[in-house]
Design brief:
single chain; about 180 residues; alpha+beta; six-stranded mixed sheet; 4 helices; 6 strands; about 50% helix; globular
């Protein structure tokens, strides 16, 4: 009988511990999602407001921005150099998130996201990787993509073919 009671108590403890752990994990993820949503919303607002310092403070020191053009792969310094004239002239971009998904690494130090954006280029996709640095989320990599509806992909391909054929040839040679 003692063995049965001991087994019952042990299994009850394990079930209770797991449910508390799951609640903490769920709570933690919800809090972190709120923090990440704020970071990404602020990131977009800082760009729209042409706030250079606050915008680039959202990036980790070692980070990458990948733009819509195949040539646009920049580290933080290169992206700052490229973007500075736009921020100085207050001719930056204004993106609004329409839908966002956020996921976490098991250790909780990394997150990745994808979002649908309303932009001056119409619908775009933003995606990226975030890292927790000193207790704050920072953009480690950001990728901006122009979406192409399936109904017009053939037309878009015809338009970009002469430009990108040259790039493809050049990339094959330098590979």
């Amino acid at each position: 009988m003692k063995k049965i009671i001991s087994l019952f108590l042990l299994s009850s403890f394990l079930i209770f511990s797991n449910s508390v752990f799951a609640q903490k994990k769920g709570f933690y993820e919800n809090v972190q999602k709120k923090n990440i949503n704020k970071l990404l919303d602020d990131f977009n607002t800082f760009a729209a407001d042409a706030d250079f310092d606050k915008y680039f403070d959202c990036f980790a020191e070692e980070s990458t921005f990948i733009g819509t053009d195949a040539t646009e792969v920049w580290n933080k310094k290169e992206f700052k150099d490229w973007a500075k004239p736009y921020f100085d002239k207050k001719t930056t971009w204004n993106f609004k998130s329409l839908k966002r998904n956020i996921y976490f690494s098991k250790d909780g130090n990394f997150a990745w996201f994808d979002e649908i954006l309303d932009t001056q280029m119409k619908i775009c996709r933003g995606s990226g990787v975030l890292e927790k640095v000193g207790g704050k989320w920072k953009v480690k990599q950001y990728v901006l993509s122009v979406t192409v509806p399936n109904e017009v992909v053939d037309e878009v391909t015809k338009i970009k073919t002469p430009i990108e054929d040259a790039m493809i040839h050049k990339l094959k040679i330098t590979k």
